[in-house]
Amino acid sequence: MVGVGADWEEGLRAITAFNLGSPRAEKGPFKNGTCIVLAALLCSGATSWSLMVVEYPWTWTKILAMPVLHVCLLITLAIPLLNERQVGRPYHYCKFDAVDFLIRTPGITNYMLEMDDAPVNARSSSRFLQVNMKGGDVIHFQSPHSFVGTPLMRIVAFLVSGLSAVAYLCQYVILKSASNKRSAIWIGIQGFMALMRISYWMSDPKFDDPKTEFAEYAMMNNTSFDGIMTYELVCAVLPNGTAPVKIPVWALNYVFNIPLRHILAQVMGEHPHVPTDAGTEIYVFENVNFERILRNRLGNNEPPTTTEWKLGVWRHSSKPEVTPFLLVSVPFSEIIDNIRVTRWGWMQISHGLKGCRSNIEGEEFSIVEPETILSMRDGRRVTITSYSDSSADKAAGTLQEHPSSYRYLRDRSRDVHDWLKIILERRQALAKNDPQALLPRAVNIYSHRLWIVATNNTIDRKHGIARVGGQILMPSTSEQLWYPQQCLDRLQEYIEEPSSGHVVGDRPSKSATEKRPAHTISSV
Amino acid sequence: MTDDLSAANDLASGSQDLSALAGLFCTDGVESNALATQTGYGTVVASSLSLLGMLGLVKSTIKIALGLEACSNAGLSLDSLRGVYGYRRGEITSEGKIYECYDTKVRWIKVIDQYSPSSIPKQR
Lengths: 524, 124
Fold this sequence. Notes:
Strand content of chain B: 5-15%
Order of helices and strands of chain A: EHHHHHEEEHHEHEHHEHEEEEEHEHEEH
Helix content of chain A: 25-40%
Structural class of chain A: alpha+beta
Strand order of the largest sheet of chain A: 3-4-1-5-15-14
Radius of gyration of chain A: 30 Å
Radius of gyration of chain B: 25 Å
Distance between the termini of chain A: 14 Å
Largest sheet of chain A: 6 strands, mixed
Number of helices of chain B: 6
Distance between the termini of chain B: 79 Å
Number of helices of chain A: 14
Oligomer: heterodimer
Shape of chain B: elongated
Structural class of chain B: mainly alpha
Largest interface: A-B, 103 and 76 residues
Number of strands of chain A: 15
Shape of chain A: elongated
Strand content of chain A: 15-25%
Helix content of chain B: 40-55%
Order of helices and strands of chain B: HHHHHHE
């Protein structure tokens, strides 16, 4: 369980919030790794070795009862503690690489994106929890490596719990041979420790609180970006079991670099259908929910479409140009052993559809019947012609259009077109409005694309001051035109270690001892 | 004096039989706190203190090995697992403040694309 900042007063409309954690909460003396290990050694050691008060020869019973029990207890403690170290420290794992990785619009890169459960290299990868709420997303960074839930952990846990139970019995076996006095001492020690334990739990000391509610958040305003950001794409990837989702570099570069409204205008307009010759590369964002990205950008106020759709892109090996297209799910027939089987597939909406007019960006699209549709099912790519029922096709055993699917396709395509049109209009209206209207009452606004907010009582990692709600550093006009890279630079300056002494230029540095009354910005 | 000590001996060696009684005060408490990382590291570490109630630690370890689904199917209580495994999908809590999270891993893999430059400029 992690805190996700659910109580933002202003909501998270069109915002992606990155949990930057809190240095104070994560770097306290009782959060220190060495400190925890020492405490664990001491507690489990006292439990295991207090039986030394009973004199007993070093037999297997004694080895099991003391050193083995000690090791077992340590491993038992290590499982939840290690998990917490990996999951509960966003400050630690929100290093520049992780943020860079998600916020950077890669531009022209040579990297493809892969999402799966395989072991990952910490440099080029990132692991996080993401949650969609209040109209936006919250991202909580964690260790790229996970331990809890892995088969190894399960085996270890089973073995350790079995051994612990045996060691527990061995303790009593040894105890039976003890003198009365020694037994009394032993039970006294154990009883005292049990009392200490329960009084510790009851007192629930403050220094031990995880303080996950004290956190700083870097908030990215999605409405101000043209191309899709890495984090938007990553959050929109649908859970796909265990199979990795791999996105090739050219498809990534296209969606990252071309403004979203241009992509939409293009897919809604007239454009050639996907060629079927050998030199054509096609990538369908099969596991990416673009509708989620669009709705998130508009604060999730739009009703979802009734028809499922997907975005695809294609290019020819001889040209660098990438062309987008839309797919909708439709039924079709397949003839297998002379039996007509109705199946569902993804088909391209091509050539703009009859009755579907669009005046986006002043263009009026011509009315064309869809002649060719492309099925992308089971990795096959088959061109079928509407109304085609030729014997040649039957003989080839290829796909054929369902008798009713032409109309069906058109209706469904219209659904999607109408929805996209509304989205584009809404976006234009939103862009006309004052972008400041979307801003929450935040501190450390760096531009209208990025701002940092902190929860009550959180110490600013840069200046060592408690954040103050009323203090709003308004951006200058030039700052409002920042590109993602500049947002990233500012964020880097903010999250890097304070010891570097580097202070963002235009803001005066505050003395580390200066304290101000904290004001509620948002609770978590 | 001898009688007192022998009583202590009986008590000490008999505390194995008192496990049901100890369970009332110790085992359940240990089980629910052994994995309660959401309340702090100290809470977890303290659960290894004292042999009385140590079976709670064994129980929680078995549960963590089984996982949330298996424990739920087996009819075991899931409360002690919340700190580590959280809630199952669709599970309704009394607090009503639980959001569904996706554990996501992403990585970049270097590939050569014919239309991209062979090296990326480091823009920082």
